[in-house]
Amino acid sequence: MKSSPIRHDWKIEEVEKLFALPFNDLLFKAHCIHRENFDPNQVQISTLLSIKTGACPEDCSYCPQSVRYDTGVEKEPLMAVDTVIEQASQAKEQGATRFCMGAAWRSPKDKDLDQVIKMVQGVKALGMETCLTLGMLKKEQSEKLSAAGLDYYNHNIDSSEEFYDKIITTRKFDQRIDTLKNVQDAGINVCSGGIVGMGESQRDRGGMLMALANLEKHPGSVPINSLVQVKGTPLHGIEKIDALDFVRTIAVARIMMPESMVRLSAGRNEMSEAVQAMCFFAGANSIFYGEKLLTTANPEENKDMALFNKLGIEPMPAKH
Ligand code: SAM
Ligand code: DTB
Ligand code: SF4
C-alpha cells in the first residue's frame, strides 16, 4: 500500500507542521512519496509562448503585462495561427512535448477563442500536448475547448485566499475557483498553482497548497512560480524568498498532492543549479523549457540539457 493517500481534507495546522519539519525529514518524506508515484529521474518539459502580450486590464501586482504598470513590455495583438504552429514546431525540435499558449486577457472573447482553437488543433497535429492560459473561462467556453481536444488549462489561484486581495483586486479568489470547476467539469486536465516570494507568510504558502489539495480533485499539474521581479510592477523590490523555503514549498506540494505533476516554474533563471536539483529531489517533475517564459527570461535550452545530464535526468516522453 502507498504511504500517501489522496486527501482533500487538509487543515492549515497540519500543513504548517509539514513546513516546520527539519529540512532533511521533510525532503526525505517528499522524496519517498515522489518515488512511489513517479520515476524520479524523469522531468516533463513544456515550452511557453505568449500568443497575446500586454495591455491586460487586470491589476495583478506581480505581472509585467498589466496595462496599469509601466514595465516596458510591448503590447502585441493575438498572433496569427501559422506563426504559433511554426513556433510549436521549433519547440518540438528542441525536445518539448507540451506547448503552452498564454494570453494577457481577463477572459477570452468568443471570436478570439475561435482563433485559439485553430492553434490548439494545429499544435495537436504536430503530435504535441496542448495547454492554454487565457484567464477566466465560462462553462460553454471550457466545453468548446474540450471538444477541440485541449489537453490542459492553466489558471492559477496564485496565493492563499487570505493573502489574495493584497495582490489582485480586479477579480476574486472565488472566481478563480469557478473557472477551475468549469475546466474540470468539461473534462480538461487542470493546471493550477501559484507564486511565492510576494511577501506572503509560510502559513500563506501552506494556505495556497491547501486550497489546491482540498479541491474536489487535485490539479493534474501544479506550477510553483518564484516571483520574477519586474521593474515597474508594485512587487518589484520586495524581499526575496529564501531558497530553502522555496524548496520546502515544493516538498509540501509533493506530499499533499502525491500524484500531481509539480512544476518548478518561473524563477529558475535566478536559481542556482544546486537549488533546482534540490527541487527535483523534493518532488518537482516538470519545468518550462526554452529561453523565454511569457515575457521574462528562462534558462537557455542547452543550459537545461547540461543540468539534466549532470543529474542523470531524462525528459519525460509525451503520453500520446
Ligand atoms: N492572463 C491569464 C491569467 O492571469 O489567468 C493568463 C496568463 S498569466 C501571465 C499566467 C500566470 O503567470 C499568472 O497566474 C501568474 O501565476 C504567473 N505570473 C505572471 N507574472 C509572473 C511573475 N512576474 N512571476 C511569476 N509568475 C508570474
Ligand atoms: C505558470 O504558472 N507560470 C507560467 C505559466 N503558468 C503561464 C507563466 C510565468 C510568467 C512569468 C512572467 C513572464 O514571463 O511574463
Ligand atoms: Fe493579466 Fe494574467 Fe497578468 Fe493578471 S496575470 S495582469 S490577468 S496577464
Structure, described:
- There is one protein chain.
- The chain is an alpha/beta fold and 320 residues long.
- The protein is built from eleven helices and ten strands.
- It has helices at residues 12-20, 23-37, 81-93, 110-125, 139-147, 161-164, 173-185, 202-213, 243-256, 273-282, 301-311; strands at residues 42-52, 98-103, 129-133, 152-154, 189-191, 194-196, 221-226, 261-264, 286-288, 314-315.
- Strands 1, 2, 3, 4, 5, 6, 7, 8, 9 and 10 form a ten-stranded parallel sheet that branches.
- Strand 3 (129-133), helix 5 and strand 4 form a beta-alpha-beta unit.
- Helix 3 runs parallel beside helix 4 and helix 5 runs parallel beside helix 7 (173-185).
- The longest helix has 16 residues, at 110-125.
- The chain is globular and about 50 Å long.
- The model has no long low-confidence stretch (mean pLDDT 94).
- Iron/sulfur cluster (SF4) binds at residues 56, 58, 60, 63, 65-66, 104, 106, 135.
Number of strands: 10
How are helices and strands ordered from N to C?
Answer: HHEHEHEHEHHEEHEHEHEHE
Pick out the low-confidence regions.
none
Strand content: 5-15%
Q: What does this entry show, briefly?
A:
The protein has 320 residues and is an alpha/beta fold.
List keywords for this structure.
binds 6-(5-methyl-2-OXO-imidazolidin-4-yl)-hexanoic acid; ten-stranded parallel beta sheet; 320 residues; binds iron/sulfur cluster; globular; binds S-adenosylmethionine; alpha/beta
